[in-house]
Amino acid sequence: MIAPLSMRMLVCALPATAALLAAQTSRPERTAPPRSPAVESATHDVLDAVRALRVEARAVAAGEQPPRSRADFAESFPITSPREAAGGKLLLRADRDPYVDAYVRWQLTSYEPLLPELIDPAFARWIATLPEYADNPRADERLVREMMTIAQAGALSESDQAEISERLETLAARTSDARRLNEPARQLREWIEKQVEGDRARRLLLALEQVASLADSGWSVREIKGDVERLIEASARDESFTADDRRRVVERAGELISIQRLFLASARIDGGALSVEFDDAAIYDFEVRRWARLLEEGD
After folding, report:
1. Residues 178, 296 within the same domain
2. Is 298 a residue whose pLDDT tops 70?
3. Of the candidates 116, 137, 157, which is a domain's last residue?
4. How confident is the model at residue 296 (pLDDT cuts 50, 70, 90)?
5. Could you list the residue range(s) of the whole structural domain that residue 70 is in?
6. φ, ψ for residue 284, nearest 5 deg
């Protein structure tokens, strides 16, 4: 058993304890170092730019003004340096509306922003915040079912043919509008890809994010999956592509297997009947296994 402290020892300890508590209480609080006037000014300027871009994005989405064909907002809305202020804003969602978010962040790239250094987990979290694509109208489940039913019915009356032709024209216009709305999100990802061009692991994770975003929205992923496979083949021969890089890529690819959406690839009236073709936006288990095998062979 531990013997209790003697009264003398306790009395001696009290002054020291009190002095320690007093020192801790009187210790000044730590405060962040003040930002330089240049940084403060740049931060305010970027916030003003973001507000202006939100207004512009909503006007473009409503068809009240034409969209920009490239990231050139900085030419009409100059801000002071440093460029880090714009870089920091790129890491955060700019708006709850995915289109506005994409438009704002895409146009912020016109300031040639400097991104902060990101460790791998932070980079993964950042690309997970990238704006979603607008849904492909051709992937609407009700539309897909209706087109299947009509195609199976065979010959159509002239009035039915006219009605379906009109629906297909409307669908083509809606699909074109959706593609237009997706342009800022696509160009933002292209800009990020250029920033990580020398890092195959991050390029692959970004490409897989692109696959997930497109598939979730019902757009074809055939082309981007080809890009993923070519990157994996190149990475397998790259000695700087570490075992941890391989693990992260395979794990991320495996998370996408459950994504699958069917969409109407083509439809036309042919010989008095509706002729349709469907495609799917998906990553399959056999594809992930092949990618993992390619990476293992290069290990």
Report:
1. yes
2. no
3. 116
4. confident
5. 39-116
6. -100, 155
